[in-house]
Amino acid sequence: MTALHPLFALFIFPAGLFLILISFFFEWLDRKLIARFQNRQGPRFLQPFADIFKLLAKEEIVPIGVHRTLFMALPIFAFACVMTASLYVPFFGFKAAWHIRGDLIIAMYLLSAMTVCLGMAGTNSINRFAVVGATRTLTQLFAYEGPFMLALLMPALVAQSWTISSIADYASNHTWMIVTQPIGFIVAIIGLIGKLELPPFDAPEAEQEIVSGALSEYSGRGFGLFKIAKNVELVIGLALITVFYLGGIVNPLLFSIKMVVLLCVIALMQSTLTRLRIDQTVGLWWQAGAILSLAQLLIIILVRVR
Amino acid sequence: MKLIGMIQDVLSSMFKKTATISYPLKPSPPPERYHGRLDYNAAKCTGCMMCTRDCPAETIQIKVIDRKTKQFVMTYNIGECVYCKQCVFNCKFDALHMTNLMWESASDSKEGFQLYFGKKEHIDSLLKQKNEEPTA
Amino acid sequence: MTDNLIDSNKSQKYIVPIGPQHPALKEPGHFEFTVEGEIVVDASIRLGYVHRGVEKAAESRTWTQVLYLVERVCGICSHAHGTAFIQNAEALAGIEIPPRAKVIRAIAGEIERLHSHLLWLGVAAHEGGFDAMFMYSWRDREIVMDILENFFGNRVNYSVNIPGGVKEDITPEFAEQLRIKLDFLEKRLKHYLDVVNDDVTFRARTVNIGTLGKEEMTRLGATGPTARSAGITRDIRVDRPYSGFDIYPINMILDDHGDLNARFVVRLKECFESIRYIRDVLEKIPEGELSVKFPRKIPAGESMSSVEAPRGELFYFVRSNGTENPDRVKVRTASLCNWGTIVSAVAKGHKLADMPMILAGIDPCFSCNDRMVNIVGKEKNAQLWTWEQLRKYGINYHAMQEGFNVSDCGIEQLREEK
């Protein structure tokens, strides 16, 4: 491969521009599905693109009382985190752009770093809503992170590798892991909802209480970048779960269908469940989520030892 | 299924038409009894001014040109009207009616909301008078 | 920034302000919740952002014009406001409206209750982040709005009342339409009641949240569904039946839990009762005139009337001085009575996340309750009375007026026990 290849992978495909565009599509699909579930019409196809385009064109207001550099840098950092993470994830049936040993841990770490960025963005400002939102974001991070991590590590344990690509290879050549590890799959998909702060785990940005949570003070470019980062995180999360649990790398069409089906499940949960309070969220994760994933882990270890 | 109460609605609405009406493309006609624009019949009016006295928005004005030959000009602002139908009840001579017209009232100027009922020459002269008045 | 508001040493209090502009509140009101972490330790409220001077404006309008003015005090319970005011005017003028008009007023009131409770159901669910319920209940509310539009001509301020009667007649064809729509609505409401009672996540947010016992509710003077959810038998339609409800009585819906879930249940069951009532009354609606003549001038005098608005007791005091205009109109809306149950009792100890739902739980209406009280000062003719004095005076006044013995009804004892 020529020197062009890494740059092409970074900026155009599979990461970069292509990923951002596809994330618009997934955001639109998510909103449209929820609207249809609620008997509404929902947004037009180009709505997410128009939203982001408008946000990026707008003035960014830096409020009083924030650390200016941090305020400006956090959105970029969060955006960079998810874009870097996307390099290690195989999208739409293509091999991952890059792989090194243990890149699963790197991807997970980068995705968490994005959430930490959100938390820092909240605590950076003196807005009370933002501070409460940031506290909730970070509390929720500690709640779902353990079980979600375990749920994604279990395929790694089975495949005996910490590299996403080799886990994907393993998944393509064996039975779908949703069959062999159903509990892990459930924990993973609920963990993804928690990670993306979607209902019912949207206490960190519950608009009825704390307006827009940690991002209350963000406007214009910063807000737009955070929004893109979250959309991309949705795509990465869906792709990871699809690769691990739904039969690895297959042809692009089938892969997209699987991702859309997963999105349907997420949208269904978003529209049928009431928002949980933050204490209920934490309780649920540590009481049910952690124990379930530990049980799954135990089963895997027992099966493997035998 | 009972534990997740709304799941039935949510799933079945995927196969249903949306409750939203795509309004400008699909006009929705007002019902028969809808309180729309006021209609005035100068031939029946006696100029008793009962409609103006109880109008909550104080928007009806009747200019008497000649009471004998029933020459009246009724002015009325559809932007100020609260569509309560009180004037219709106050009118003992059946000169006022609520129609279900003009419920999509919109105009690019305030004058667009002002409606005049009566003979054309009277309205013209009235408008001319109004224009000539110095705006204090 | 050195003067960081969060960890300033001056005050250790961390206050989360809600309002006057806030996504949770569609009307302006200002709340300050002092929180420790997520737990609210203190709450205060400031109202008065939508004071419009309605009471003063009423004094310069004719009786008929005031009817339409007070209908606009509240957009959702406009019929209740109109009825409460016009009952006073009719009482002062010495007019008895025809029974058909009375029943049509009652039916309009119950249709209004349906639309108000469905609206509330959506809003309260939305405050808890349950948007599916919000969208569906508002979709079904549109049926009630269509009934109002088809029948009374307007969607919101439908002005059914006219001094001395009602405007529109209920024709048999309309009654048939109404029955069909009510059947559908009843089916939907049954479904919502099931959701409220069974849904796991929804119950997690409502059961044992915002609980207030019967004694505490009585002490704070709650009215309407809020009071009835704690088992207080307080419903003007039953206690002091007014137009229509004296001819055909309605049942009171009670629940004894006093928490948020009970408020959902009480309001939904009230919807069923309203549907039952409308159905029954449509069968046997009395024949007769729709309105009687109403004089332009009303003899001097004072009158009070209460109406059970969807939110609770709505009270109107009217004084006439024998002219075309009322001399004084005093409005006391239900939301004002219910604020106390949130701010002084329920809020403390709850999570911040529960506050929007608890606030929505009393079905607050901000623009309803903004009145102005001008205390002139001690040196002038004004008197400052304590609650006890005022209560004693009220009991004695009514005992004198109505001629009953105070010791019989046990009001005094109730007070002393407390």
Automatic annotation (TrEMBL), chain A:
The lineage of its organism: Bacteria, Bacillati, Chloroflexota, Anaerolineae, Anaerolineales. One of its GO terms (cellular component) is plasma membrane. It is found in: Membrane. It comes from the Bacteria. The keyword Coiled coil does not apply. The chain crosses the membrane at residues 7-26, 70-92, 104-122, 142-164, 176-194, 234-253, 260-278, 284-303. InterPro entries: ComplexI_Subunit1, NADH_UbQ_OxRdtase_su1/FPO. It holds the Pfam family NADHdh. The keyword Repressor does not apply. Keywords: Membrane, Transmembrane, Transmembrane helix, Ubiquinone. It comes from Flexilinea flocculi. This is NADH:ubiquinone oxidoreductase subunit 1. It is a multi-pass membrane protein.
From TrEMBL, chain B:
It comes from the Bacteria. PROSITE patterns: 4FE4S_FER_1, 4FE4S_FER_2. Pfam families: Fer4_7. Residues 36-65, 72-101 form the 4Fe-4S ferredoxin-type domain. GO terms for cellular component: membrane. One of its GO terms (molecular function) is NADH dehydrogenase activity. GO terms for biological process: aerobic respiration. Keywords: 4Fe-4S, Iron, Iron-sulfur, Metal-binding, Repeat. This is Membrane bound hydrogenase subunit mbhN. It comes from Flexilinea flocculi.
From TrEMBL, chain C:
InterPro entries: ComplexI_49kDa-like, NADH_Q_OxRdtase_suD, Ni-dep_hyd_lsu, Ni-dep_hyd_lsu_Ni_BS, NiFe-Hase_large. Ni(2+) binds at residues 74, 77, 365. It comes from Flexilinea flocculi. PANTHER family: FORMATE HYDROGENLYASE SUBUNIT 5-RELATED, HYDROGENASE-4 COMPONENT G. This is Ni,Fe-hydrogenase III large subunit. One of its GO terms (molecular function) is nickel cation binding. Coiled coil: none annotated. Its cofactor is Fe cation; Ni(2+). It holds the Pfam family Complex1_49kDa. Mg(2+) binds at residues 55, 331. Keywords: Iron, Magnesium, Metal-binding, Nickel, Oxidoreductase. Fe cation binds at residues 77, 368. It comes from the Bacteria. Residues 129-293, 297-371 form the NADH-quinone oxidoreductase subunit D domain. Signal peptide: none annotated. SUPFAM superfamilies: HydB/Nqo4-like (SSF56762).
